[in-house]
Amino acid sequence: xxxxxxxxxxxxxxxxxxxxxxxxxxxxxxxxxxxxxxxxxxxxxxxxxxxxxxxxxxxxxxxxxxxxxxxxxxxxxxxxxxxxxxxxxxxxxxxxxxxxxxxxxxxxxxxxxxxxxxxxxxxxxxxxxxxxxxxxxxxxxxxxxxxxxxxxxxxxxxxxxxxxxxxxxxxxxxxxxxxxxxxxxxxxxxxxxxxxxxxxxxxxxxxxxxxxxxxxxxxxxxxxxxxxxxxxxxxxxxxxxxxxxxxxxxxxxxxxxxxxxxxxxxxxxxxxxxxxxxxxxxxxxxxxxxxxxxxxxxxxxxxxxxxxxxxxxxxxxxxxxxxxxxxxxxxxxxxxxxxxxxxxxxxxxxxxxxxxxxxxxxxxxxxxxxxxxxxxxxxxxxxx
Length: 384
Known about the structure:
Strand content: 35-45%
CATH topology: Neuraminidase
Pfam families: DUF1668
Radius of gyration: 26 Å
Low-confidence stretches: 1-14, 16-33
Order of helices and strands: HEEHEEEEEEEEEEEEEEEEEEEEEE
Region (Disordered): 1-40
CATH architecture: 6 Propeller
CATH class: Mainly Beta
Shape: globular
InterPro entries: DUF1668_ORYSA
């Protein structure tokens, strides 16, 4: 009897070993399926910080959060990329996806204009792109919607303004050879059923609707929406004689259920407002909530950039999940050769129990010493 039990136990053990071995062999036979790692995002900062032109620096937010605040730091070297400037003047920068587009000479138009440069932050590749369309006032004002950059021209008469879209599209080269690229960056004019009532230079703020396709824009006197998905024909709508409370771009945050941006009247202050309706005309702007906590460092007596400044001395970047980065570029003196101090403040936003806009507990600041080569450019910043 005992012998049979021992025999059964031995058979069971060997059978169990065979099953485990079989499972192990099956596991080795299967291809390894790893969940794709999400690419870590960084802050990319464009500056006119060397005599030959401009640099784009790559900043790790974790480094800023982990280090003690205070003091002045040097920007990480080497820069992600340096761009030699053909003229001592302002460049313009815009971003779409993982790409930064660089207009190296905004003073030249048509055939005289150099090609746009395209810096891919994912591959660190630098490529030549198409020329900026004529009468496009500033590439830096282009608005990213989905997989395209939209930019409005500035001409003497608004009714002759045109809207252009930059996208990754099949090459337009006729009879291109097999070794030629099948896709390229290209500008196309967006068909409009009616002339636009404003020029590109008139736009003081814009925001993308949560639907991901409708742009809201305000001039100094009125607001409009523009639907980019209407069968390839852009449709704009006048929303009323009111203005969104922002200057520059505003960003939708799902947690706050609001657009967030820099206040257009109080420089450096952050504010938010509910998303405006796409379908109804309003008589007053959405209610604005202002963040009363002082985040910016600028003082009234600080030297200012030239009036013809490309970009803004203060800018706000959205990093997702109610997280933001505030940039301030403050000149040391009115002489550009004396350089500037660039302040970065990282913060989060929330509503308190009264519904007022407040910052979250964690906040970080960092200051960088920056040299300059032109008084007509401050900085450009992107999160990607």
